[in-house]
Design brief:
Elements (H helix, E strand, L loop, with lengths): L13 E7 L5 E9 L6 E6 L2 E7 L11
Antiparallel strand pairs: 1-2, 2-3, 3-4
Length: 66
């Protein structure tokens, strides 16, 4: 599989990450993340909304919220 180059840093590749939904359904390629640790760019779909530009780790988990 040829991975796309990250357009933010132009040094890393974007890798697809999968997850499981709240009812256990598999969600393939929910997030694409840059493998360059300095960059950490992500693009994701959350409840039908495309979110991009956040670094890995900047996202709060739902159970962390009050």
């Amino acid at each position: 599989m040829d991975l796309p180059q990250c357009r933010k840093c132009s040094r890393g590749a974007l890798v697809p990450l999968s997850d499981f939904g709240p009812r256990g359904a598999s969600l393939e390629y929910k997030v694409w993340a840059c493998i360059n640790p300095v960059c950490g760019f992500t693009i994701r779909i959350d409840k039908g909304v495309v979110i991009y530009g956040l670094k890995v780790g900047d996202l709060k988990r739902r159970f962390d919220e009050p």
